[in-house]
């Protein structure tokens, strides 16, 4: 049975054989733009109009002239697009595409935490729900977190939520103490330091690059740390030929496409599993993308008072980056 939540196609209707062509036609009919995160499966990246990190995607969402935004990413990203575009339809191929990091910061517990530190400015990583954004003073992404924290007066105490790993990394980079909410991403905490070192020994000329959502044990082996876009740009500009990539391996599709002569090796997870692939991002498929555009569901909706409260800290981020 077809439901908006899981977007299984109706049993009576088969998807077209050429999904790429069908999606292009629907895009024109709907005046839609497809925004995709680098962690989406390669087919989705190949059909997207724009592929980017969380900052790039929110900047695109803020400025797109399209009438419909089809968001190939996770819920908080599509919700951010809706916060920025109340008059546009924002579609997400699978409503179950959540985020362990956003889930690790429930609104009621965070409200209590915030109330216990009334003198603190709240900076929240964009990987959080609209409720958390509404309780925040400024939003940041992995691309601009250091830059934003550096703009806050030194005497101002800061709560940083929800990612403890990004928070710790920002503290190291800025020399600022911050009160960290203890949330984390299941994907970026899955990498094994022991296996990473073994992989480095097997590939002694490879450069380790990592996303700041990784734990310190992984980050200390990295020659370069940055958001997904920053990691891609680093690989393209570097004279090095081989890279061990400590983030979700979806990004390797773009790395390999844009630098086919270079070697990109995914950092190994703890167990012999695919746990370095984000289970939420990977809920979206090309077929679900087609059905979303064909049927116009699932659509992201948000109560206006909540949208307005969440908009203010996002606008501050866009102005500060
Ligand atoms: P960026 O897109 O900011 O690199 O963050 C990665 C991530 O985990 C998104 O969920
Ligand atoms: Fe959330 Fe981590 Fe998946 Fe990004 S990779 S969407 S932070 S669970």
TrEMBL record:
Keywords recorded for this protein, A-Z: 4Fe-4S, Cytoplasm, Iron, Iron-sulfur, Metal-binding, Pyridine nucleotide biosynthesis, Transferase
Binding locations of [4Fe-4S] cluster: 99, 185, 278
PANTHER family: QUINOLINATE SYNTHASE, CHLOROPLASTIC (PTHR30573:SF0), QUINOLINATE SYNTHETASE A (PTHR30573)
Catalytic activity of the protein: iminosuccinate + dihydroxyacetone phosphate = quinolinate + phosphate + 2 H2O + H(+)
InterPro entries: NadA, NadA_sf, Quinolinate_synth_type2
Gene Ontology annotations of biological process type: 'de novo' NAD+ biosynthetic process from L-aspartate
Localization of this protein: Cytoplasm
Pfam families: NadA
Organism: Neosynechococcus sphagnicola sy1
GO molecular function: 4 iron, 4 sulfur cluster binding; metal ion binding; quinolinate synthetase A activity
Keyword Heme: no
EC number of this enzyme: 2.5.1.72
Domain of life the protein comes from: Bacteria
Family designation: Belongs to the quinolinate synthase family. Type 2 subfamily.
Cofactor: [4Fe-4S] cluster
NCBIfam families for this protein: nadA, PRK09375.1-2
Cofactor note: Binds 1 [4Fe-4S] cluster per subunit.
Name the UniProt record assigns to this protein: Quinolinate synthase
Gene3D superfamilies: NadA-like (3.40.50.10800)
Chief place where the protein resides: cytoplasm
Signal peptide: none
Function according to Swiss-Prot or TrEMBL: Catalyzes the condensation of iminoaspartate with dihydroxyacetone phosphate to form quinolinate.
Main enzyme class: transferase
